[in-house]
Batch of 2 targets.
Target 1
Amino acid sequence: MLNIAQTVFRRKIARIIGLPIILLLSLSGISIWQITRLLSVMNWVEHTDQVIAQAYFTQKLLVDLETGVRGYQLTGNREFLQPYEQSNSQINTAFDELANLVVDNPTQTQRLKLIRVEQTNWNRQIYQAIARKERGETEPLAGFQLRKRIMDRIRNELANFIITEEQLRTQRTQAVQVTTIQVIFTSIALAIVIGIFLAYFIWRQVLQVSQNYQTALTIAQQQAQQAQRAAQRLAALHNIDKAILRAESIESLINNALVKMSEILPYQQGFVAVFDFEKSTSKIIAGSINTRELQSLIGTQIALTDFAAKASELQNIRYIADLATAQSCPPILIQLRSQGIRCSLCIPMFVEERLFGEMNLSTTVVDAFDEEAHSIASEVTAQLAIAIQQSLLREQIQTYANELEQRVAERTAQLEETNQELEAFTYTISHDLRAPLRTMQGFAQALQEDYTDKLDSVGQEYIQYITEGAVQMDTLIADLLAYSRLSRAQIEMQKVDLTSVVEEALKQTSTELQEQQAQVTVAKPLPLVIAHRSTLVQILINLLSNAMKFVQPGIQPTIQIYAEEQQNWIQLSVLDNGIGIAPEHQERIFRVFERLHGVETYPGTGIGLAIVRKGIERMNGRAGVESQLSAGSRFWIALPKAVPHSNNSDDASTPHSDN
Ligand code: ADP
């Protein structure tokens, strides 16, 4: 578009410059031609002057001829013949030159030929006369008369020749004058005409260029205005978007959009209705409505036919520029009209090509919505439709989530109840199992002590098995009780010094450590953590016992205890040189009764690590292991870090309940 305009502009400029140059060149050409014509006419005048001068010169020579001869004839003195002889030697040349000058004029050439014939004749006569005179003879009168007649004719012809030339000269002088006037006038006239034409032409071109510029300026201004309006519109739509996004409910969603849209569209009231095609009803869900009569409609269900006689009509945008003159109006618009509304714009709302409602904008001003208003309203309605649909979906999901949450809470409560019942049952069973076990142990011991002599060695061996089985079962029940207690105990968290906890655990396992000749290194001082002290001591005892127990026979257990800080956590590690654990078993060993070896190889109940995991979880910590088979293990526990203050608040003696 810009390129085309530039080409047109360049063509115009070329025309403005080119045409005057062409015209001025033409004017110069015509002037040169005129001047050449004038010069040629003037040359002819000069030529005629030359002819006349040459004619007079020839006439003078003829006179000299005649005069010279006459003097000689009168005196007989040859001195008088000198002018004759001189003229005679020149006369032919003079005639030749004259003939050359009038070669283009046949009449004069003919006349000159005649004169030359006469002159030749006269010359012949005069030769004879001079010869006679030299012989001393007397010239007869007839000779004189003949020559006089010849000379008269010559004179006469020459005079006519000169008259003719002078006439020609007069004619040519007049032609010069006429041509001069013609040249002057045509030059002036041409200059004036070309000047006027050029002035008019340049004026028109300049006018056109200025008009083009004016048009271009207007277009540029219009485009700038359009761009400005587009930017305003974009900003407004952006604001509407933001308002839609900010909204918490469908009502506020619609109200926000309507309030923001009223800044760029000239409507006074607007509302959004949703349709239920199955029930043939509709509902105005929200809007900014001024009249009380219509306001009462918000939230109530009305017939779908109130919006349009046929459902298919609802699919399209309906614009009624003037409700007062509209031929047919649906009841809702009649109601609006009765409230003073004159112009109404209804835009359908679609989601995935499914019509689900409409937006209505109305005002008391006739034909208030132009094409741009239509497009803005359509754009906002489309966005609003998606937002409403999303909101509806969100509400639905929220309802589902709430229902689900409630169900989960109910199930959790049920589970907790069952769990508690189960734990109580386990506790009771474990607790109650101990009494008959004690009885069994007691009677087995009585048998051993009182009936040793009555029992053979096999019987005594059986009693030994019973005693060992009872001890094993007692340990199992004790561990189970400890685990069960840990689940039910109330745990109070406080600042705990890990150094003292480790020392306590080492103290409690000292006998075992000595038996195993274990070598323990503790990287003191250890930091403070938030934990439940006695549970933590129990956890460490279990880890230490395992570290001592699970070593290859004949290997001295070497145990390292150290702590690392990780952000707000303290990780305490118990590193051993034991048999290690294959990666695939590292998670399951933390479950109850999970063991990787037979009791005969490594004795145990399979509850120690379950107590570690349970205890650490109850203290909001984490526990794990890093290990490779035959490469030792690093069991770790992580607990929240405690900030130390001046008085060491690690209160080991703080009473706590673990029951
Ligand atoms: P128990 O020690 O009574 O067998 P635990 O719950 O303490 O039960 O341990 C479960 C299993 O985890 C053990 O039987 C053993 O196979 C493995 N285990 C625990 N600690 C270690 C360790 N330090 N090194 C190698 N294996 C271990």
Target 2
Amino acid sequence: MAQAASEDPWWEDCVVYQIYPRSFSDADGDGLGDLAGIIGRLDAIADLGVGAIWLSPIYPSPDADNGYDISDYCDVDPRYGTLADFDRLVAAARDRGLRIIMDLVINHTSDEHAWFQASRRREDPYTDFYLWRPPNPEGGPPNNWTGFFQGSTWTFDELRGEYYLHLFDRKQPDLNYDSPAVLERVKEVMRFWLDRGVSGFRCDVINILHKASLADGRPRLIVRGREHYVSTERLHAILRELRRDVLDPAGAFAIGESVFTDLPMAQELSDAGRRELHALITFEHLEVDRLFHRYVSYPFSARRLLARLAHDQQGLDWPAPYLESHDQPRIVSHYGDDGRYWRRSAIMLGVLAMTLRGTPLVYQGQEIGMTNFDFTGLDEVDDVETRNVDALMRRLKIPARLRWHWLAEGSRDNARTPVQWSAEPGAGFTTGRPWLPINANHRRINRAAQEHDPDSVLAWYRRLIALRSASATLRRGAFEPVGATRACVAYRRVAAPGDSADGDYTVLLNFTAQRRRIPCSWITDVAAPVGLSTVGRPHAAVAALEPFEALVLRQRSSA
Ligand code: ISL
């Protein structure tokens, strides 16, 4: 039983589809997505050919950070439904061959969680569940750390008469992993959901759970103090314990989100032999043209992107390639072109997403090429991070126009606007007033319009996922960079010795709106059959790539 996980690594063969429930589908017309809405759309998800759904948090939450501030780990927020609805979702998903992966947010709870309320009152066993410290000798916060959402990581609580640590919002107090009782409670939470039929967890900011010291941090513009808590020794021990005691006995999958992660750190967290996480979500490949939490942009270089991708693709045992999430701008608006070449660039990015090694994650709406929001001002933005970055930029006296330009490019709300199911008012997402504005381009970009169009972004995602599902090389073959310019990249996927029947693949991508010449050395066999061409190429004799073109060549295996 304890070895179940290694006997069936199902995640190595499937694509995971991420749902951000509040923006996915609203069945009861209150403007917020819900579980019944998801159940009603399961056929649309299964039809893509994916094998699992990662659900962003559905737990009760005061929503300071849209569900990533949880006030009860073992229930469903009434706005999303009930535990009975959740059970129906698991069963209905299973009927369609879909597994459910829960978001596990255990670095922090909500300040409205019963544990925190008891901890404020120093009630055992909760007294030390959080990181409480008295004021410093001058009466201020215990150290100089600054958080992910800007500002001090400490808030004074009148009731307890001490400061508590929060790396995110003040309504997200950090749990204290020096207390063994906390980890035991976390195990109970995980078992609760495993018993309800979930197949694994996406573990939120998992590499910062343990704070090795609360000493002052080194001077830094953002997230000061991080050297005291990123991937500590105790964190690694905690992950091994969760794997041994909870995950492996259930055959469950754990994919961790890790922040400020260099390659050796990522290897340690996800190395198969160390038995910590099965796979890792990292960020650097989405920030090759971004600084400061992606809020400041500079020119894109395809060369830099390939180098970043190669890092994880070659360096990690099992990568989790992705291009979008609820925290990132839409990829077609970022590395693509959401104007003239919208369709072609969305498809090119789909080719990239589906031809990388590992377990790919596809975010809701990516499969129809949804774009960044069309908001015109901060009053339409909901995201706590965007608002805090705005406050910081104001303090730095960044002029209003530039400020909005950067906020609009980097805001997490870009990916959080409701899914565009149809051209109707409400976009088929809701009959009510949506919690976040719907992009006006839903009249043109929507699922219904693409459903039966063989050239649509959706049709290409179906085709690409099917190609990947049928190809051992694309799923697990080696990744070899071939070459890159500022505009174009080429890489090869090379069959493992046992998979040689499938052959090797060469992928060529143009990230610009111009026709670009490519070095002839990138194509080693001009007679290689064309596996996929987004511009209808008949053969592999290619000297230049068309704007945002993607080309996949199949070759006999060199193995
Ligand atoms: O992307 C980020 C850093 O560059 C941050 O926006 C993000 O907060 C960070 O990656 C952690 O994300 C996760 O934990 C947060 C939550 O707000 C995010 O939605 C979640 O994905 C706190 O729980």
